[in-house]
Amino acid sequence: MSYNFKDKVVLVTGASRGIGKAIAIAYCKLGARVIANYCKSKEDALKLVKELDNGGYLIEVTQADVSKSKEAEMMIDEILKKYGRIDILINNAGVRKDGFLAMMSEEDWDNVIDINLKSVFNVTKWVSRAMVFERRGKIINISSVSALKGVAGQANYSASKGGIISFTRSVAVELARFGIQVNVIAPGLIETDMSSGMDEKKRNDILSHIPLARIGNLDEVVSGVMFLSSEESNYITGYTLVIDGGLSI
Question: How far is it, in rounded angstroms, from Cα 238 to Cα 210?
Fold first, then answer.
């Protein structure tokens, strides 16, 4: 299936590396104007822009801690002042701070919930207002297989990613009458900087439970995002597309 996002304005949060970076690059190559949000990884964000600028693609970066409502609002206001609309929103910003529940600090719990879940509320709230005015839009929230399958040491992460799925279903119902589709991508173990630094024993243990017996790649996640943000998915909303090689079965 061939996609064309020419003249679409796309906001991707957490876009300086990993899945977010791959998504931003894909939209650029398919003609979109991409606003790549980052929080702390300024060097990685500028490297991404330089890489794509050299190819003549339309991309810019914007710094904001999207877990903070005011920063999210100000970022979106600036984008709307400049471009008048946001056609596609990808809520990808996220962190992991794994630890067994008995030893998990309140700070680690709050930090993961704020960055992974509250950020989705903050950004979706302000972007959806603009989309309602346009009476169209696509919102895709990046969750995880951890929302569907119990993983020891990930109570905070799993709660945040499960919350994204429930949030998406409610918001999908609210926004459907305005022509806005809201969906979820739930990746499993994907080859990224985060997974490459994983303990080998843990990595092999996860692999042994994946029916397709391999780790997924970024292109496979990106393909799901492109489909759910294209015109071909106009009759799909509130849906969770699981890309995990069967791990959650």
Answer: 26
Who's near 24: CB < 8 A, 6+ residues apart? 10, 12, 15, 34, 36, 48, 59
12: part of which helix (H) or strand (E)? strand 9-12
User: 130, 9 in Cβ contact below 8 A?
Assistant: no
Tell me the per-residue pLDDT of 49-88, one tens digit each, with 9 for 90 and over.
Answer: 888 877 789 999 999 999 999 999 999 999 999 999 999 9
Domain ranges of the chain: 9-242
Mean pLDDT of 172-199: 89
Using H for helix, E for strand and C for coil, what is the string for 29-88?
Answer: HCCCEEEEEECCCHHHHHHHHHHHHCCCCEEEEEECCCCCHHHHHHHHHHHHHHHCCCCE
Q: Which one of 3, 157, 235, 239 is the catalytic residue? A: 157
- Residue keyed to tokens 């060097």: 43
As to burial, measured by CB atoms within 10 angstroms (0-12 exposed, 13-18 middle, 19+ buried), residue 104 is middle
Q: Which helix (H) or strand (E) holds 183?
A: strand 180-187
CATH number, domain 9-242: 3.40.50.720
Torsion of CA 233, 193, 15, 113, to 10 degrees: 90
pLDDT at 195 over 90: no
**N-terminal to C-terminal alpha carbon distance within the chain:** 27
SS3 142: strand
| Cα–Cα distance, 121 to 124 (Å, whole number) | 5
Residue 157 among the catalytic residues: yes
pLDDT for 101-140, tens place per residue?
999 999 999 999 999 999 999 999 999 999 999 999 999 9
Distance CA 182, CA 88 (A): 10
